[in-house]
Input
Amino acid sequence: MASERTEQRRRYSPHEIRKKLDDADGALATGQSVSSICERLGITRQTYYRWRRSLDSLASEAGATSGSYTSASNVNVQEPMPPLPRRIEPGSLERLRFLELENQRLRDAVIALLLEKMSLTK
Output
């Protein structure tokens, strides 16, 4: 008969995930292995690497779009949108951040199109 899982899956809040990853970074800096860190944190290596990939992709996306909107001349409407993340869990801070960035990109595109339309109608 197939073995049953005795442990129940636990969902961590984004704050808890960030805290665990910060703890892991400190332990990695001291030379501990990822396996021993994951065991101490109570997570699997797969979970650690999934969280790390998710956090790194959010950080790079946030860094690429940081700053405020200054003019329509720096907006390229032809620029393709980045691919959607593989999985964003509803209600998470990552989903909120992704939607905020998407909303800002769409607003910038609308402003650029309106300015272009105004310049063509003159």
